[in-house]
Write a structure and sequence with these properties.
The chain has 4 helices and 2 strands; from the N terminus they run E-E-H-H-H-H. The chain is mainly alpha-helical.
Length: about 130
């Protein structure tokens, strides 16, 4: 078992057995989670976080519907478009990562890796 697999979902309590179903790593790949807190952040299945999962629009992923204020139908169209692009690309990246053997620092999307690298350089200057 890889170290990034096999955590329990803090919503349903079931095993998050695969990287491809991990909300934690989806958010990390998307740049929504700092690498420094990856090991201390609770895990959950992507589908157990419907307010994020609703933004995955991809073949092979059954759409998730959310009701209420946070349903994407009730949000700004430009925000929804940007969020769908980011989260869908991040989900697709997770699918690719499951077939590769990369260091965890290389998991995020290219623009996220660049931002992390720039922040690290900035932090060294301070």
């Amino acid at each position: 078992m890889k170290c990034d697999e096999g955590y329990l979902c803090d919503v349903c309590g079931q095993d998050v057995a695969k990287l491809t179903g991990s909300d934690l790593y989806l958010r990390y790949v998307a740049g929504m989670l700092d690498p420094e807190v990856l090991h201390t952040t609770p895990e959950r299945h992507i589908r157990c976080n419907p307010t994020l999962a609703q933004y995955i629009v991809a073949e092979g992923f059954e759409p998730v519907a959310v009701e209420g204020d946070f349903a994407k139908e009730n949000l700004d169209a430009q925000f929804v478009e940007e969020r769908e692009s980011l989260i869908t690309r991040s989900w697709q990246r997770l699918q690719e990562l499951a077939k590769q053997d990369l260091p965890i620092i290389d998991y995020p999307l290219p623009e996220v890796r660049q931002r992390i690298s720039e922040q690290a350089k900035f932090d060294q200057v301070e």
